[in-house]
Design a protein that fits this description.
Order of helices and strands: HHHHHHHHHHHHHHHHHHHEEEEEEEEEH
Membrane topology: Multi-pass membrane protein
Organism: Phyllobacterium endophyticum
Radius of gyration: 27 Å
Shape: globular
Strand order of the largest sheet: 2-3-4-5-6
Family: Belongs to the CcmF/CycK/Ccl1/NrfE/CcsA family.
Pfam family, one: Cytochrom_C_asm
Structural class: alpha+beta
InterPro entries: CcmF_C, Cyt_c_assembly, Cyt_c_biogenesis, Cyt_c_biogenesis_CcmF
Amino acid sequence: MTVELGHFALVLALALSIIQAVLPVLGARRNDDRMMAVAVPASFTVFALIALSFAALTSAHVLSDFSVQNVFENSHSQKPMLYKFTGVWGNHEGSMLLWVLILSFFTALVAYFGNNLPPALKANVLGVQAWIGSAFLLFIVGTSNPFARLNPAPVEGRDLNPILQDIGLAIHPPMLYLGYVGFSVCFSFAVAALIDGRIDAAWARWVRPWTLTAWIFLTGGIAMGSYWAYYELGWGGWWFWDPVENASFMPWLAGTALLHSALVMEKRSALKIWTILLAILTFSLSLLGTFLVRSGVLTSVHTFATDPGRGLFILAILVLFIGGSLALFAWRAQTLAPGGLFQPISREGALVFNNLFLTTAAATVLIGTLYPLLLESLTGEKISVGAPFFNLTFGPLMIPLLAAVPFGPLLAWKRGDILAVAQRLMTAFFLALLVVALVLYKTSASGVLAAFGIGLAAWLMLGAVTDIWLKAGLGKASARATFQRIIGLPRSVFGTAFAHFGLGVTLLGIVATTTFATESVLVMKPGDGIRAGGYTLRFDRVDAVKGSNYTEDQGRFTIMNDEGQPVTDLLSAKRFFPVRKMQTTEAGIKTFMFSQLYVSLGDAAKDGGIVVRIWWKPLVTLIWLGGMVMMIGGCMSLLDRRLRIGAPNRAKRKPQPARTVA
């Protein structure tokens, strides 16, 4: 009965979403307050219905109700309880239900926090959100019903894909979806502005918190996905330029550009039309990522669906929203008032420079991702565009952008003095050069590129520190006065500095682990040892271990220091899931400060040994630590007292006492 209730709630949510998509928009056109007022209660009700539907599917998974096809194909009675919960979205149907749940949640948030929005704008935004929700609810009900029954009900399920039976699945997809779907609000504001034909600084103030929220979650989702692939797949890498990885990276690049563009628009009423276009393109890239994952055009550990019918349905959604919004932009953009003017050397100019390189980088990744697919569809020829292409195109675009990052926050609005800013950054520049010299001294000529990469990372971090140092007036006043000035700085100042510092931390991790990592592949027998990263790794034995729904051959290693004293143990395993008849690699990882020793077991050798792959990855954890610092920076900016959902209400004029006429 619970399953049928969930299905009914989903159908009812679809019907109500269609009503929400039509009535408020018509009301805004007719200036009918009653029709526009439908949007708010409809948003809350749709969210409640989809939440009820999601809870019903979760209940079926937790209770191992194998009469539900989705549960039968993706669960097992012996599966750990945690993975029964996470398995709800570890498949196509469940993940799409999570997608629309998050979409309806964001719509309800707009309805709740948007009390100070103009009624017409609020109605149009909620209406556009409902258009998106209706399309995907129709897709789920029509092609991806998560509540389909099996008769007779099987006794046991087929289990979840073993690769997805990991704590990373509990964090990575929800965070990624919060980022993807969060940009739908920016898209809806952009389309609503085009419908209404008006856009101003208040519009940018309403959009910025939603953009920032989506960016924070997407940053976390990408970082968590990178770490999940790093430790779960046993490949030893943190980024592979996989097309589905690119699908999440492209909206992040566009969203970062949108975040900076909206700031220019709010502060200086400039870049209005460009900001509208960026809001459309960012969510369009999110939709493209949804299509790539669920259309069956890609084969990846990230993909769920392989049904061409579903792919055509999503392609139709893609054409409808991307094509429709761009057509609306082409028709209405000329009616929007142009933005203000500014000098090229200014903070606005620096942010335009930022936008230029970020959008070009996103276009480069887009071309490298889609070109093989287009070529195969047109000619049948299969080609592979991998890391060499992206490294040679994306990397050079990032170097000038990263070099310019410390200048932006120190430039004045409208007209800046580049020489004065360069003087303020001189200390940071010389310290970065000192870092380059030290790396060259340690690595000789073989590490030239690494030295400049690490120097660039130091430049970013030192530039962020310089920004706070100068704005707080450190060293120019008493400790008490300095402290008062620090706590008086807007949180967005700290947010910007943290985000830029985190970018430098990530870059440092990328350069160090890419350049200085070592890899060894050898056959080891019990008692054999090998040097790695200043330690000796000794292979002890292999134990057979039985888990709740798997068996594994667990390799035991001892890590010893230079004196031959044991430092710690390390476990690495080959795990077999009998239900799915799949084998996975459980990498053994030990962290030493910011570096890691990474061990992956291979196949057994004929002489009784076992193939072992060993990596020493210096500073690799900085890659994900930098992502966390960037998220902290985003959260600090989001808490800025000047950044509120919407714009402040205008003060109402006090009523004047009535005057009597003699």
